[in-house]
Q: What sequence folds into this?
Protein backbone atom coordinates (compact mmCIF):
# COMPACT_ATOMS: atom_id res chain seq x y z
CA UNK A 1 0.00 0.00 0.00
CA UNK A 2 1.42 3.38 -1.02
CA UNK A 3 0.98 5.96 1.69
CA UNK A 4 1.38 9.68 1.43
CA UNK A 5 1.85 11.94 4.43
CA UNK A 6 2.21 15.68 4.83
CA UNK A 7 5.77 16.21 6.01
CA UNK A 8 6.31 19.37 8.08
CA UNK A 9 10.02 19.21 7.15
CA UNK A 10 9.33 19.88 3.49
CA UNK A 11 5.84 21.36 3.81
CA UNK A 12 4.47 18.99 1.26
CA UNK A 13 2.59 15.75 0.93
CA UNK A 14 5.15 13.04 0.25
CA UNK A 15 5.11 9.41 -0.69
CA UNK A 16 5.98 7.37 2.41
CA UNK A 17 8.89 4.92 2.27
CA UNK A 18 10.04 3.31 5.52
CA UNK A 19 13.73 2.72 6.23
CA UNK A 20 13.17 -1.03 6.59
CA UNK A 21 10.70 -2.53 4.18
CA UNK A 22 7.38 -3.31 5.82
CA UNK A 23 8.31 -1.92 9.25
CA UNK A 24 7.51 1.56 10.53
CA UNK A 25 9.30 3.08 13.51
CA UNK A 26 7.19 5.84 14.90
CA UNK A 27 7.55 8.14 17.90
CA UNK A 28 4.91 10.40 19.43
CA UNK A 29 5.53 13.00 22.11
CA UNK A 30 3.42 12.01 25.08
CA UNK A 31 1.76 13.77 27.99
CA UNK A 32 3.22 15.70 30.87
CA UNK A 33 1.75 13.94 33.85
CA UNK A 34 1.06 16.82 36.21
CA UNK A 35 -2.63 17.07 35.36
CA UNK A 36 -5.28 15.14 33.43
CA UNK A 37 -4.88 15.10 29.66
CA UNK A 38 -7.42 17.36 27.96
CA UNK A 39 -9.36 16.76 24.76
CA UNK A 40 -6.85 18.83 22.75
CA UNK A 41 -4.07 16.49 23.93
CA UNK A 42 -6.15 13.49 22.95
CA UNK A 43 -6.93 14.95 19.53
CA UNK A 44 -3.19 14.93 18.91
CA UNK A 45 -2.59 11.47 20.44
CA UNK A 46 -5.48 9.87 18.58
CA UNK A 47 -4.32 11.27 15.27
CA UNK A 48 -1.10 9.31 15.89
CA UNK A 49 -3.21 6.28 16.68
CA UNK A 50 -5.23 6.71 13.48
CA UNK A 51 -1.97 6.89 11.54
CA UNK A 52 -0.63 3.78 13.20
CA UNK A 53 -3.80 1.79 12.64
CA UNK A 54 -4.08 2.96 9.02
CA UNK A 55 -0.51 1.84 8.36
CA UNK A 56 -1.27 -1.49 10.00
CA UNK A 57 -4.36 -1.91 7.84
CA UNK A 58 -2.10 -1.21 4.86
CA UNK A 59 0.10 -4.14 5.88
CA UNK A 60 2.91 -2.46 7.81
CA UNK A 61 4.24 -3.60 11.14
CA UNK A 62 4.28 -0.45 13.25
CA UNK A 63 6.55 -0.03 16.24
CA UNK A 64 5.01 2.90 18.04
CA UNK A 65 6.60 4.59 21.04
CA UNK A 66 5.18 7.37 23.17
CA UNK A 67 6.92 8.91 26.17
CA UNK A 68 5.63 10.01 29.53
CA UNK A 69 7.14 13.31 30.64
CA UNK A 70 7.39 12.90 34.39
CA UNK A 71 10.51 14.92 35.15
CA UNK A 72 9.76 17.96 37.26
CA UNK A 73 10.71 20.60 34.74
CA UNK A 74 7.55 20.96 32.82
CA UNK A 75 5.82 23.62 34.80
CA UNK A 76 6.75 27.13 33.80
CA UNK A 77 8.28 29.55 36.22
CA UNK A 78 11.44 29.15 38.19
CA UNK A 79 10.69 28.61 41.86
CA UNK A 80 7.13 27.41 41.86
CA UNK A 81 7.18 24.36 39.59
CA UNK A 82 5.99 21.97 42.20
CA UNK A 83 3.93 24.60 43.88
CA UNK A 84 1.97 25.01 40.65
CA UNK A 85 1.47 21.25 40.33
CA UNK A 86 0.46 20.99 43.98
CA UNK A 87 -1.99 23.87 43.58
CA UNK A 88 -3.51 22.08 40.63
CA UNK A 89 -3.88 18.89 42.66
CA UNK A 90 -5.77 20.90 45.28
CA UNK A 91 -7.97 22.46 42.59
CA UNK A 92 -8.67 19.04 41.12
CA UNK A 93 -9.59 17.68 44.53
CA UNK A 94 -11.94 20.56 45.10
CA UNK A 95 -13.69 19.99 41.76
CA UNK A 96 -13.84 16.27 42.42
CA UNK A 97 -11.59 15.39 39.49
CA UNK A 98 -9.07 13.92 41.92
CA UNK A 99 -10.81 11.99 44.69
CA UNK A 100 -9.95 12.79 48.30
CA UNK A 101 -7.41 10.27 49.51
CA UNK A 102 -5.58 10.06 46.16
CA UNK A 103 -2.15 11.75 46.03
CA UNK A 104 -1.61 11.79 49.78
CA UNK A 105 1.21 14.28 49.61
CA UNK A 106 0.53 16.86 46.88
CA UNK A 107 4.08 18.13 47.31
CA UNK A 108 5.61 14.80 46.28
CA UNK A 109 6.26 14.97 42.52
CA UNK A 110 6.54 11.18 42.24
CA UNK A 111 3.08 10.67 43.74
CA UNK A 112 1.64 13.33 41.46
CA UNK A 113 3.29 11.89 38.35
CA UNK A 114 2.25 8.36 39.25
CA UNK A 115 -1.35 9.30 39.79
CA UNK A 116 -1.66 11.17 36.50
CA UNK A 117 0.26 8.53 34.55
CA UNK A 118 -2.29 5.94 35.62
CA UNK A 119 -5.16 8.30 34.87
CA UNK A 120 -3.70 8.96 31.43
CA UNK A 121 -3.31 5.25 30.65
CA UNK A 122 -6.86 4.58 31.82
CA UNK A 123 -8.32 7.37 29.66
CA UNK A 124 -6.15 6.35 26.69
CA UNK A 125 -7.28 2.74 26.83
CA UNK A 126 -10.91 3.78 27.03
CA UNK A 127 -10.28 5.87 23.93
CA UNK A 128 -8.73 2.95 22.06
CA UNK A 129 -5.24 4.51 21.98
CA UNK A 130 -3.37 1.36 21.11
CA UNK A 131 0.09 2.24 22.41
CA UNK A 132 -1.32 2.67 25.93
CA UNK A 133 -1.96 -1.07 25.96
CA UNK A 134 1.77 -1.58 25.36
CA UNK A 135 2.78 0.15 28.58
CA UNK A 136 5.49 0.01 29.84
CA UNK A 137 7.42 -1.52 26.90
CA UNK A 138 6.46 1.12 24.34
CA UNK A 139 5.59 3.88 26.79
CA UNK A 140 8.85 4.88 28.50
CA UNK A 141 9.01 7.33 31.38
CA UNK A 142 11.57 10.11 31.33
CA UNK A 143 12.62 9.38 34.93
CA UNK A 144 13.69 5.88 33.82
CA UNK A 145 16.03 7.31 31.17
CA UNK A 146 18.12 9.85 33.09
CA UNK A 147 21.30 7.81 32.56
CA UNK A 148 20.70 7.80 28.80
CA UNK A 149 20.18 11.55 28.84
CA UNK A 150 23.47 12.10 30.68
CA UNK A 151 25.21 9.86 28.15
CA UNK A 152 23.78 11.78 25.19
CA UNK A 153 24.71 15.12 26.74
CA UNK A 154 28.29 13.87 27.26
CA UNK A 155 28.45 12.84 23.59
CA UNK A 156 27.09 16.21 22.49
CA UNK A 157 29.80 17.97 24.53
CA UNK A 158 32.51 15.70 23.05
CA UNK A 159 31.28 16.45 19.54
CA UNK A 160 31.27 20.20 20.06
CA UNK A 161 27.50 20.57 20.05
CA UNK A 162 27.16 21.42 23.72
CA UNK A 163 29.08 23.39 26.34
CA UNK A 164 29.12 24.06 30.04
CA UNK A 165 28.50 27.75 30.70
CA UNK A 166 30.36 29.63 33.41
CA UNK A 167 27.47 29.09 35.83
CA UNK A 168 27.63 25.32 35.32
CA UNK A 169 24.54 24.94 33.12
CA UNK A 170 24.95 22.71 30.05
CA UNK A 171 23.56 24.19 26.84
CA UNK A 172 23.20 22.93 23.30
CA UNK A 173 25.03 25.29 20.96
CA UNK A 174 22.72 26.04 18.04
CA UNK A 175 25.61 27.58 16.09
CA UNK A 176 27.27 24.15 16.04
CA UNK A 177 24.28 22.85 14.08
CA UNK A 178 23.78 24.98 10.95
CA UNK A 179 20.54 23.22 10.08
CA UNK A 180 18.85 24.51 13.22
CA UNK A 181 15.54 25.99 12.12
CA UNK A 182 14.92 23.65 9.19
CA UNK A 183 11.70 22.26 10.65
CA UNK A 184 10.14 25.41 12.11
CA UNK A 185 11.69 28.09 9.93
CA UNK A 186 13.04 29.68 13.12
CA UNK A 187 16.59 29.94 11.90
CA UNK A 188 19.31 31.33 14.14
CA UNK A 189 19.35 34.77 12.55
CA UNK A 190 15.62 35.08 13.22
CA UNK A 191 15.93 34.15 16.86
CA UNK A 192 16.74 37.41 18.52
CA UNK A 193 16.02 36.53 22.10
CA UNK A 194 16.01 33.45 24.26
CA UNK A 195 13.90 30.56 23.14
CA UNK A 196 15.20 27.73 25.23
CA UNK A 197 11.87 26.06 25.69
CA UNK A 198 9.80 25.42 28.72
CA UNK A 199 12.66 25.55 31.18
CA UNK A 200 13.13 29.18 31.99
CA UNK A 201 16.68 30.25 31.35
CA UNK A 202 17.44 32.84 33.93
CA UNK A 203 21.04 33.28 32.98
CA UNK A 204 20.48 34.31 29.41
CA UNK A 205 23.80 36.18 29.38
CA UNK A 206 25.74 32.95 30.00
CA UNK A 207 24.70 31.53 26.63
CA UNK A 208 26.75 31.81 23.46
CA UNK A 209 23.62 32.34 21.36
CA UNK A 210 20.19 33.36 22.63
CA UNK A 211 18.61 30.26 21.05
CA UNK A 212 20.96 27.87 22.85
CA UNK A 213 18.80 25.56 24.92
CA UNK A 214 19.22 23.80 28.20
CA UNK A 215 20.42 20.22 28.42
CA UNK A 216 21.27 19.97 32.11
CA UNK A 217 20.74 22.32 34.98
CA UNK A 218 22.59 21.79 38.25
CA UNK A 219 20.17 22.61 41.07
CA UNK A 220 20.67 21.15 44.53
CA UNK A 221 17.35 22.53 45.70
CA UNK A 222 15.21 21.16 42.90
CA UNK A 223 12.59 18.72 44.04
CA UNK A 224 13.46 16.09 41.39
CA UNK A 225 17.19 15.79 41.01
CA UNK A 226 19.86 13.33 39.91
CA UNK A 227 23.64 13.13 40.10
CA UNK A 228 25.54 13.95 36.92
CA UNK A 229 29.03 14.97 35.74
CA UNK A 230 27.72 18.57 35.95
CA UNK A 231 26.46 18.29 39.46
CA UNK A 232 23.19 17.28 41.05
CA UNK A 233 20.35 18.69 39.00
CA UNK A 234 17.88 17.85 36.30
CA UNK A 235 17.76 17.49 32.49
CA UNK A 236 16.13 19.84 29.99
CA UNK A 237 12.83 18.80 28.48
CA UNK A 238 13.85 18.26 24.84
CA UNK A 239 16.63 15.76 25.53
CA UNK A 240 14.24 13.12 26.86
CA UNK A 241 12.56 12.48 23.51
CA UNK A 242 15.85 12.19 21.60
CA UNK A 243 17.04 9.67 24.17
CA UNK A 244 13.89 7.58 24.51
CA UNK A 245 13.19 7.39 20.78
CA UNK A 246 16.64 5.91 20.24
CA UNK A 247 16.57 3.69 23.32
CA UNK A 248 13.20 2.09 22.62
CA UNK A 249 13.12 2.07 18.81
CA UNK A 250 16.76 0.97 18.69
CA UNK A 251 18.10 3.28 16.00
CA UNK A 252 19.34 6.84 15.47
CA UNK A 253 17.04 7.53 12.55
CA UNK A 254 13.36 6.70 12.62
CA UNK A 255 10.52 6.88 10.10
CA UNK A 256 7.78 9.03 11.59
CA UNK A 257 7.61 11.51 14.45
CA UNK A 258 4.23 12.93 15.43
CA UNK A 259 2.95 15.58 17.80
CA UNK A 260 0.69 18.58 18.07
CA UNK A 261 1.62 21.61 15.97
CA UNK A 262 2.52 23.51 19.17
CA UNK A 263 5.50 21.16 19.56
CA UNK A 264 7.17 22.09 16.26
CA UNK A 265 9.11 24.86 17.95
CA UNK A 266 11.12 24.73 20.06
CA UNK A 267 10.61 21.12 21.08
CA UNK A 268 10.91 19.24 17.80
CA UNK A 269 13.49 21.62 16.38
CA UNK A 270 15.62 20.92 19.46
CA UNK A 271 15.05 17.16 19.23
CA UNK A 272 16.41 17.22 15.68
CA UNK A 273 19.48 19.23 16.71
CA UNK A 274 20.27 16.87 19.59
CA UNK A 275 19.63 13.59 17.77
CA UNK A 276 21.41 14.54 14.54
CA UNK A 277 24.19 16.31 16.46
CA UNK A 278 24.78 13.10 18.34
CA UNK A 279 24.37 10.55 15.53
CA UNK A 280 25.76 12.49 12.58
CA UNK A 281 22.71 11.38 10.59
CA UNK A 282 21.10 13.91 8.24
CA UNK A 283 17.67 13.17 9.74
CA UNK A 284 16.26 12.19 13.10
CA UNK A 285 12.82 11.31 11.69
CA UNK A 286 12.22 11.16 7.94
CA UNK A 287 8.61 12.33 8.29
CA UNK A 288 7.44 14.89 10.83
CA UNK A 289 3.68 14.92 11.01
CA UNK A 290 1.73 17.40 13.12
CA UNK A 291 -1.90 17.72 14.14
CA UNK A 292 -3.49 21.13 14.28
CA UNK A 293 -5.28 22.68 17.24
CA UNK A 294 -8.59 21.81 18.74
CA UNK A 295 -11.18 24.50 19.37
CA UNK A 296 -14.27 24.17 21.53
CA UNK A 297 -17.43 25.55 19.94
CA UNK A 298 -15.22 27.71 17.74
CA UNK A 299 -13.14 29.11 20.58
CA UNK A 300 -9.69 28.44 21.92
CA UNK A 301 -9.83 26.17 24.92
CA UNK A 302 -8.84 27.95 28.13
CA UNK A 303 -9.40 27.56 31.82
CA UNK A 304 -10.49 31.18 32.16
CA UNK A 305 -13.24 30.74 29.56
CA UNK A 306 -14.53 27.64 31.33
CA UNK A 307 -14.26 25.58 28.15
CA UNK A 308 -11.20 23.60 29.19
CA UNK A 309 -12.20 19.95 29.21
CA UNK A 310 -10.38 16.79 30.13
CA UNK A 311 -11.39 13.52 28.49
CA UNK A 312 -12.93 12.43 31.78
CA UNK A 313 -15.01 15.61 31.99
CA UNK A 314 -16.56 14.51 28.71
CA UNK A 315 -17.02 10.88 29.82
CA UNK A 316 -18.64 11.94 33.07
CA UNK A 317 -21.14 14.30 31.50
CA UNK A 318 -19.54 17.50 32.80
CA UNK A 319 -19.55 18.94 29.29
CA UNK A 320 -22.89 17.97 27.79
CA UNK A 321 -24.91 17.26 30.92
CA UNK A 322 -24.97 13.53 30.25
CA UNK A 323 -22.28 10.85 30.18
CA UNK A 324 -20.54 10.35 26.85
CA UNK A 325 -19.26 6.93 25.91
CA UNK A 326 -15.48 6.94 25.24
CA UNK A 327 -16.07 5.45 21.79
CA UNK A 328 -18.10 8.53 20.93
CA UNK A 329 -15.35 10.87 22.07
CA UNK A 330 -12.79 8.84 20.13
CA UNK A 331 -14.84 9.01 16.96
CA UNK A 332 -15.43 12.72 17.42
CA UNK A 333 -11.71 13.38 17.87
CA UNK A 334 -10.56 11.34 14.86
CA UNK A 335 -13.25 12.25 12.35
CA UNK A 336 -11.81 15.56 11.20
CA UNK A 337 -8.60 15.70 9.21
CA UNK A 338 -5.45 16.19 11.26
CA UNK A 339 -4.37 19.18 9.20
CA UNK A 340 -7.62 21.05 9.87
CA UNK A 341 -8.31 22.72 13.16
CA UNK A 342 -10.81 20.54 14.89
CA UNK A 343 -13.95 22.14 16.29
CA UNK A 344 -15.26 20.21 19.26
CA UNK A 345 -18.99 20.73 19.69
CA UNK A 346 -21.88 19.18 21.58
CA UNK A 347 -23.56 18.79 18.21
CA UNK A 348 -20.55 16.90 16.89
CA UNK A 349 -20.70 14.52 19.85
CA UNK A 350 -24.39 13.89 19.22
CA UNK A 351 -23.68 13.12 15.57
CA UNK A 352 -20.81 10.82 16.49
CA UNK A 353 -23.05 9.00 18.95
CA UNK A 354 -25.62 8.50 16.19
CA UNK A 355 -23.02 7.11 13.79
CA UNK A 356 -21.59 4.77 16.37
CA UNK A 357 -24.96 3.51 17.48
CA UNK A 358 -25.73 2.79 13.84
CA UNK A 359 -22.44 0.90 13.41
CA UNK A 360 -22.90 -1.13 16.57
CA UNK A 361 -26.50 -1.98 15.67
CA UNK A 362 -25.35 -3.00 12.22
CA UNK A 363 -22.72 -5.31 13.65
CA UNK A 364 -25.25 -6.82 16.04
CA UNK A 365 -27.52 -7.56 13.08
CA UNK A 366 -24.65 -9.23 11.20
CA UNK A 367 -23.60 -11.20 14.25
CA UNK A 368 -27.08 -12.49 14.84
CA UNK A 369 -27.19 -13.73 11.24
CA UNK A 370 -23.75 -15.33 11.27
CA UNK A 371 -23.41 -16.38 14.89
CA UNK A 372 -20.31 -14.16 14.95
CA UNK A 373 -18.55 -16.02 12.13
CA UNK A 374 -16.73 -13.75 9.70
CA UNK A 375 -15.38 -14.60 6.24
CA UNK A 376 -11.74 -14.16 5.24
CA UNK A 377 -11.25 -10.85 3.58
CA UNK A 378 -8.33 -8.70 2.49
CA UNK A 379 -7.78 -5.32 0.92
CA UNK A 380 -8.56 -6.65 -2.54
CA UNK A 381 -12.23 -6.40 -1.50
CA UNK A 382 -13.41 -3.33 -3.45
CA UNK A 383 -14.90 -1.54 -0.44
CA UNK A 384 -11.86 -2.15 1.75
CA UNK A 385 -9.60 -1.17 -1.11
CA UNK A 386 -11.33 2.18 -1.35
CA UNK A 387 -11.47 2.61 2.42
CA UNK A 388 -7.76 1.87 2.90
CA UNK A 389 -6.73 3.95 -0.10
CA UNK A 390 -8.51 6.96 1.37
CA UNK A 391 -6.60 6.52 4.62
CA UNK A 392 -3.34 6.01 2.74
CA UNK A 393 -3.95 9.38 1.11
CA UNK A 394 -2.60 11.49 3.97
CA UNK A 395 -5.18 10.00 6.36
CA UNK A 396 -8.24 11.17 4.48
CA UNK A 397 -10.65 10.10 7.19
CA UNK A 398 -13.65 11.90 5.68
CA UNK A 399 -13.08 9.92 2.48
CA UNK A 400 -12.81 6.65 4.40
CA UNK A 401 -15.97 7.39 6.40
CA UNK A 402 -17.75 8.29 3.17
CA UNK A 403 -16.85 4.86 1.78
CA UNK A 404 -18.12 3.24 4.96
CA UNK A 405 -21.43 5.10 4.97
CA UNK A 406 -21.94 4.22 1.30
CA UNK A 407 -21.20 0.58 2.01
CA UNK A 408 -23.72 0.43 4.87
CA UNK A 409 -26.45 1.17 2.34
CA UNK A 410 -25.50 -1.69 0.00
CA UNK A 411 -26.66 -5.30 -0.07
CA UNK A 412 -25.49 -7.38 2.91
CA UNK A 413 -26.96 -10.77 2.08
CA UNK A 414 -23.50 -12.29 2.51
CA UNK A 415 -23.46 -11.45 6.22
CA UNK A 416 -20.17 -13.29 6.94
CA UNK A 417 -18.40 -11.20 4.33
CA UNK A 418 -19.99 -7.99 5.60
CA UNK A 419 -19.00 -8.81 9.16
CA UNK A 420 -15.41 -9.30 8.01
CA UNK A 421 -15.45 -5.93 6.24
CA UNK A 422 -16.93 -4.33 9.37
CA UNK A 423 -14.13 -5.80 11.49
CA UNK A 424 -11.40 -4.54 9.17
CA UNK A 425 -12.86 -1.04 9.21
CA UNK A 426 -13.12 -1.23 12.97
CA UNK A 427 -9.45 -2.14 13.25
CA UNK A 428 -8.84 1.51 12.33
CA UNK A 429 -11.89 3.24 13.79
CA UNK A 430 -11.70 1.17 16.97
CA UNK A 431 -15.18 1.91 18.21
CA UNK A 432 -15.41 -1.65 19.53
CA UNK A 433 -14.52 -3.57 21.72
CA UNK A 434 -14.73 -0.29 23.58
CA UNK A 435 -18.47 -0.32 22.91
CA UNK A 436 -19.64 -1.85 26.19
CA UNK A 437 -22.45 0.14 27.66
CA UNK A 438 -23.26 1.87 24.43
CA UNK A 439 -26.96 1.23 24.88
CA UNK A 440 -28.60 4.46 25.82
CA UNK A 441 -26.08 6.65 24.09
CA UNK A 442 -27.93 9.72 22.99
CA UNK A 443 -28.48 9.82 19.25
CA UNK A 444 -29.09 12.84 17.09
CA UNK A 445 -32.72 13.76 16.71
CA UNK A 446 -33.68 16.97 15.01
CA UNK A 447 -37.21 16.97 16.34
CA UNK A 448 -38.96 19.79 18.11
CA UNK A 449 -38.78 22.17 15.24
CA UNK A 450 -37.44 25.22 16.98
CA UNK A 451 -35.42 27.61 14.89
CA UNK A 452 -32.23 27.43 16.94
CA UNK A 453 -32.03 23.74 16.39
CA UNK A 454 -32.60 24.07 12.65
CA UNK A 455 -29.84 26.67 12.56
CA UNK A 456 -27.44 24.34 14.39
CA UNK A 457 -28.14 21.60 11.88
CA UNK A 458 -27.80 23.99 8.98
CA UNK A 459 -24.36 25.11 10.17
CA UNK A 460 -23.25 21.54 10.76
CA UNK A 461 -24.34 20.55 7.26
CA UNK A 462 -22.54 23.51 5.68
CA UNK A 463 -19.44 22.61 7.66
CA UNK A 464 -19.59 18.95 6.65
CA UNK A 465 -19.97 19.95 2.99
CA UNK A 466 -17.04 22.36 3.25
CA UNK A 467 -15.00 19.45 4.59
CA UNK A 468 -16.24 17.35 1.67
CA UNK A 469 -17.82 15.01 4.18
CA UNK A 470 -20.86 14.43 2.01
CA UNK A 471 -21.81 11.23 3.75
CA UNK A 472 -22.36 13.06 7.03
CA UNK A 473 -24.19 15.84 5.23
CA UNK A 474 -26.46 13.31 3.51
CA UNK A 475 -27.11 11.55 6.77
CA UNK A 476 -28.15 14.82 8.38
CA UNK A 477 -30.34 15.68 5.40
CA UNK A 478 -32.12 12.32 5.65
CA UNK A 479 -32.75 12.78 9.34
CA UNK A 480 -34.06 16.30 8.86
CA UNK A 481 -36.44 15.20 6.15
CA UNK A 482 -37.60 12.38 8.36
CA UNK A 483 -38.26 14.90 11.13
CA UNK A 484 -40.41 16.99 8.83
CA UNK A 485 -38.01 19.57 7.45
CA UNK A 486 -37.58 20.79 3.93
CA UNK A 487 -33.87 20.79 3.04
CA UNK A 488 -32.43 22.64 0.06
CA UNK A 489 -28.74 22.24 -0.71
CA UNK A 490 -27.19 25.07 -2.71
CA UNK A 491 -23.63 25.55 -3.95
CA UNK A 492 -22.33 27.12 -0.76
CA UNK A 493 -25.25 27.13 1.61
CA UNK A 494 -28.04 24.97 2.93
CA UNK A 495 -31.59 26.09 3.70
CA UNK A 496 -33.65 24.25 6.26
CA UNK A 497 -37.35 25.00 6.81
CA UNK A 498 -39.89 23.25 8.96
CA UNK A 499 -42.64 21.92 6.71
CA UNK A 500 -45.91 23.48 7.71
CA UNK A 501 -48.00 20.53 6.71
ZN1 LIG B 1 9.00 15.09 22.42
A:
Amino acid sequence: MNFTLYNSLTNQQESFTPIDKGVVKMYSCGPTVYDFAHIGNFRSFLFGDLMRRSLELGGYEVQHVMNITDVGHMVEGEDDKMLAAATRVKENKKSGRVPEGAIEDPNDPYQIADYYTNAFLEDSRKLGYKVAYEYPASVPKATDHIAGMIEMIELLIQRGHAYVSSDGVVYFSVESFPEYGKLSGNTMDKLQSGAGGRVSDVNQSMKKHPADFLLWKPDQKHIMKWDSPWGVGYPGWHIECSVMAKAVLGQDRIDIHTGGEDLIFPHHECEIAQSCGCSGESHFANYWVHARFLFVEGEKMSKSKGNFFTARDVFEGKVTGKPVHPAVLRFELIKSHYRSNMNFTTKGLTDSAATITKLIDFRAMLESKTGGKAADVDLSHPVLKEFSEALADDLNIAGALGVMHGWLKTDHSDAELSLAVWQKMNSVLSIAPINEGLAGVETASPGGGDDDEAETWRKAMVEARQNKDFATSDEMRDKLIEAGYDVQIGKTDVTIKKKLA
About this structure: Residues 74-79, 194-202, 434-450 have pLDDT under 50 and may be disordered. The chain has three domains: 19-291, 324-429, 451-498.
